[in-house]
Amino acid sequence: MVPHKSGRIARQAHVDLPQGTFEEEHGRQGFFGHVSHLYRTHAPTNWARINGPLQPHAYDLNMATATAAERPQPFLGNLDVRLWIYSPTKPMPHFARNADGDECWFIHEGKGLLETDYGPLKYRKGDYLVVPRGTTYRFYPEGAGQFYLLIESMSELSIPDRGQLGRNAFYDPGVIEIPEAKPSTAPATAGKEWEVVIKRENEFTSVFYPHNPLDVEGWKGDLFSWRLNIEDIRPIVSPRYHLPPSVHTTLIADGFVLCTFAPRPAETEDPKAMRVPFFHTNIEYDEVIFYHDGDFFSRTNIKPGMVTFHPQGIHHGPHPKALENQLKKEYLQEYAVMIDTYRPLKPFELAKKSEVAAYKDSWKTT
Predict the structure, then answer these.
(1) Where are the domains of the chain?
(2) Helix (H) or strand (E) holding 102
(3) Measured between alpha carbons, how far is 112 from 315 in angstroms, rounded to an integer?
(4) pTM for the full model?
């Protein structure tokens, strides 16, 4: 399709907007398909009120960690991905195995040891731990204050192809830690037996062994558990143009992508360039952001451990204060995990109980 133009517009998207206008990106297929930019006289998020289920949501998951001390608890999900939190206060009382999908654990707070079929991995705050489907594992947290985000994928998680940027862009696969084979010495968990709890079709089955099931003496291949710390991610940036969030894609799967926002310089080399996320409807994807650490510049009253959920079909973008003060920001000191899903997400009971009711009105300017 050939781009067309009409009326008062910016010569280039996200740069030198016409005086008194707000730019909205209306696109398909996330940020990869057909797109137009609309220049409005009012921010598209400046609604007077919303009646009905389609609205932005925020959840303060810090309020729900006590309910996730014994086992992970889901808060959002669809047929492709489920999001859980886990806040263990002691080692898992059993081994675990997921027969439904791959698991990516993000360690928001805490540290410890993860035992897997492939060997142990020590983990700390800011780690991604990828556990392939069918892997047997067990968490041994160290100390209080543990808080993990679990992204459960019903298809295989993989590292995206960076194209012309090369395979070392964003993060060099060489920084990934792969476990060394080491049989577990964990004592029996049920009398003289070792219990493995297997999840299949969201139901749980206990299998008991007369020996420790993590008895692997060696392994070879290209399927394994692995660890990546968020501090090893080096964002792709442009000093003269605000890049779409898809640039920060960390892992991909069928039906969703996982992105990481890490500290990065703002677009300081052109005073006419936007320094905050542009307004958009992202019409074919739901957007979830888990806020990990730092100063979340585009959002007001958001703190670590909170989640925002923007469904398909309703606008979202920077809060008014962030938009007003964008030229004062030269560096974005923030860490966050974003999950964009093709199928609509449904909130579970935990999300409903931790809802921040005032969030949907937080863009109002009058």
Answers:
(1) 31-58+235-359, 70-230
(2) strand 102-109
(3) 40
(4) 0.93
pLDDT one-digit tens code per residue, 128-179:
999 999 999 999 999 999 999 999 999 999 999 988 888 888 999 999 999 9
Structure tokens given for 22: 């707000």
Fold agreement between 31-58+235-359 and 70-230: yes
- Segment 67-91 shows an average pLDDT of 97
Closest to 335 (Cα-Cα) out of 309, 302, 358, 359: 302
Least trusted range by pLDDT, from 82-91, 116-125, 134-143, 351-360: 351-360
Domain spanning 70-230 has what CATH number? 2.60.120.10
Total number of residues shown for the chain: 366
Q: Hunting for tokens 């669809």 — which residue is that?
A: 78
How far is it, in rounded angstroms, from Cα 251 to Cα 171?
A: 11
Instruction: Name the CATH superfamily housing domain 31-58+235-359.
Output: Jelly Rolls (2.60.120.10)
Are 100 and 146 in contact by the 8 Å Cβ rule? The answer is no
